[in-house]
């Protein structure tokens, strides 16, 4: 539009028309006016009044065209900025989150367990029997043993982390291998447990099990053991999944044939429990005889000691009762405070920030050679960030994990490790940056009869980074654990 046309256009406008004027023409008009070109005014005695009117009308036009008021415009601008900040987390678009079933793979399966849709995958050795004659031989030999496997992933992982080993493990065992996503991870549905438990709190008899707790994962594991129609199964746990595997063993030891703990995130006790054998009964008898001699009626010092001991015990029991009551109260307050903090909007924002800044970095640091982490691997680990409610579910899991540690009714797990009697294999990478190798070594010493295998030039993910060596280690362990009945079938694989 030429200068004359612009001039004629604005002469024809009334003050009310400025809210609908063309912004490009206004810009040209402002430039012309800034260059010293004067315009006759219909709105005041001079061109200054005309200019002031224009300047007052332009922002009004911007606001009215967007939301109708300056306040609405500011709110919309802030919302747009917030959306822009949360648009991508660890490279994953957060604009539109999806239901987990939409993100499923062709071989994905879903089943409902206690109100949670659990995502899982199954590889059956019998279905692969047509691949080769060797595979048929393995299936035939190991079918009598009946040892399927259940794979339990670690924190931040999913079924994806087992993709490389599921088929080889099925060939080694000659049975089914099942892996499932624990709640808060993978494509298992996210449940609003806080709202559900709050609604059920009015009923004293209704105590819903937290789906993000270790107890729920243990029951889910037992559920899958039943679904495999097996009397016993081999449990393979990686990192935090090892906690679920060991707790499942203590819940139903008769259902677990063996444990394979990969980079186990289980703190090993500093000292091993001493098991006294042989002369234990003789020592007890000697102690009883000494006590009987010491407690003879003619010894006044011992009688005084006994009176003081009983009095001290009464006081001690009273103090311990008070301390225990205070401890329970503090523990309850701690749980409530922790739950409130982790369910706040600030915690959600913090969780998203942490995942965005350190999520991909954590995956790379889990490998001995971070350069081997491909885009395919990163996509597999970040894909669950597309699911609805992933951030709040992660906080629910964290809260459940911390409260589980604060209220172990059966005693700390580390004090029960020496009670494990099934075959146990501990697998470790020699350069694990997340779980120190010395902890795995100490763990293997605490668990009776366990085997320790350290894979060289390997990080926190032996089953992903050193797949062939991992399978070889597992095969060797199964040979030694289950003897000749399985040995023939395992030799066929080699």
From TrEMBL:
Residue ranges annotated for the AB hydrolase-1 domain, each copy included: 150-471
Coiled coil spans: none
InterPro entries assigned to the protein according to its UniProt record, in alphabetical order: AB_hydrolase_1 (IPR000073), AB_hydrolase_fold (IPR029058), Epox_hydrolase-like (IPR000639)
Entry GO CC: chloroplast envelope
Molecular function in Gene Ontology: catalytic activity
Protein name: AB hydrolase-1 domain-containing protein
Species: Rhamnella rubrinervis
């Amino acid at each position: 539009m030429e200068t004359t046309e612009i001039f004629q256009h604005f002469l024809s406008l009334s003050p009310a028309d400025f809210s609908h004027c063309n912004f490009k023409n206004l810009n040209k008009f402002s430039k012309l006016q800034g260059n010293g070109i004067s315009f006759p005014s219909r709105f005041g005695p001079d061109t200054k009044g005309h200019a002031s009117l224009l300047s007052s009308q332009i922002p009004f036009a911007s606001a009215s065209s967007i939301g109708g008021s300056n306040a609405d415009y500011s709110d919309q601008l802030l919302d747009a900025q917030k959306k822009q900040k949360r648009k991508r987390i660890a490279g994953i678009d957060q604009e539109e989150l999806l239901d987990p079933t939409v993100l499923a793979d062709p071989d994905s399966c879903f089943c409902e367990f206690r109100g949670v849709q659990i995502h899982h995958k199954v590889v059956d050795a019998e279905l692969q029997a047509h691949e080769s004659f060797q595979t048929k031989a393995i299936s035939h030999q190991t079918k009598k043993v009946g040892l399927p496997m259940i794979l339990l992933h670690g924190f931040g992982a999913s079924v994806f982390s087992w993709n490389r080993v599921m088929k080889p493990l099925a060939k080694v065992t000659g049975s089914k291998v099942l892996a499932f996503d624990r709640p808060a991870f993978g494509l298992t549905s996210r449940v609003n447990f806080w709202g559900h438990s709050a609604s059920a709190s009015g009923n004293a008899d209704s105590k819903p099990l937290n789906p993000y707790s270790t107890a729920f994962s243990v029951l889910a594991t037992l559920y899958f053991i039943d679904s495999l129609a097996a009397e016993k199964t081999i449990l393979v746990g990686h990192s935090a999944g090892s906690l679920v595997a060991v707790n499942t063993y203590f819940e139903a030891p008769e259902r677990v044939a063996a444990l394979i703990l990969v980079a186990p995130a289980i703190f090993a006790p500093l000292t091993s429990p001493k098991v006294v054998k042989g002369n234990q009964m003789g020592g007890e008898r000697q102690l009883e005889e000494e006590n009987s001699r010491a407690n003879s009626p003619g010894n006044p010092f011992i009688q005084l000691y006994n009176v003081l001991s009983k009095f001290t015990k009464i006081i001690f029991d009273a103090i311990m009762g008070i301390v225990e009551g205070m401890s329970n109260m503090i523990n309850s307050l701690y749980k409530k405070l922790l739950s409130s903090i982790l369910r706040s909007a600030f915690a959600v924002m913090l969780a998203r920030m942490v995942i965005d800044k350190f999520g991909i970095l954590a995956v790379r640091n889990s490998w001995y050679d971070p350069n081997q982490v491909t885009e395919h691997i990163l996509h597999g680990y970040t894909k669950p960030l597309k699911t609805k409610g992933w951030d709040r579910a992660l906080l629910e899991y964290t809260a459940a994990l911390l409260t589980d540690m604060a209220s172990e009714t059966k005693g700390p797990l580390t004090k029960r490790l020496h009670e494990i009697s099934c075959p146990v294999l501990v697998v470790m990478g020699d350069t694990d940056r997340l779980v120190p190798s010395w902890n795995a070594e100490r763990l293997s010493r605490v668990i009776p009869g366990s085997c320790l295998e350290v894979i060289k030039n390997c990080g926190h993910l032996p089953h992903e980074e050193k797949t062939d060596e991992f399978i070889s280690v597992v095969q060797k362990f199964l040979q030694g654990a289950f003897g000749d009945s399985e040995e023939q079938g395992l030799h066929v694989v080699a």
